[in-house]
Write a structure and sequence with these properties.
There is one protein chain. This protein has helices at about 5-10, 55-65, 90-110, 110-115, 120-125, and strands at about 20, 30-35, 35-45, 50-55, 70, 80-85. The longest helix is centred in the C-terminal third of the chain and has 17 residues, at about 90-110. It has one domain (about 5-125): Aspartate Aminotransferase, domain 1, CATH 3.90.1150. The relative contact order is 0.17. The protein is built from five helices and six strands. By secondary structure, the protein is α+β, with helices and mostly antiparallel strands. The protein has a six-stranded antiparallel β-sheet with strand order 1-2-3-4-6-5.
Length: about 130
Amino acid sequence: MIDANALRDHCLAFNGATEEFPFPRHQDVCTFKVGGKIFALTTLTDTPLTVSLKCDPELAERLRAAHPEVVPGYHLNKRHWNTVSLAGALPDQLVRDMIEDSYDLVVASLPRAQRLLLDWPGESRRR
């Protein structure tokens, strides 16, 4: 089961990833960003722990249909974001893959110069 420390470590392991607490009225809401854009949003002290992740709209629908732990993004664009409960029912690898997919979607939207600075593996597939 992925706990708060593992979630933080995994999100920060990506090139250029940063952790920020940008909401003064909600100081416990943690964002993980790349290139100034959010790819993961969580409150690391919540029980159960959840994380909101960017997702391709078609995949988002499939994940929601297959896993009750995956729901439309809480207070986010429900077409492009899922909120995922990390209470233990989802395989850890699936959660890690969803985080990586979210990171990749955000990096893919960055200007090419930023993608190159991040040494993003997906850049070689874009040519």
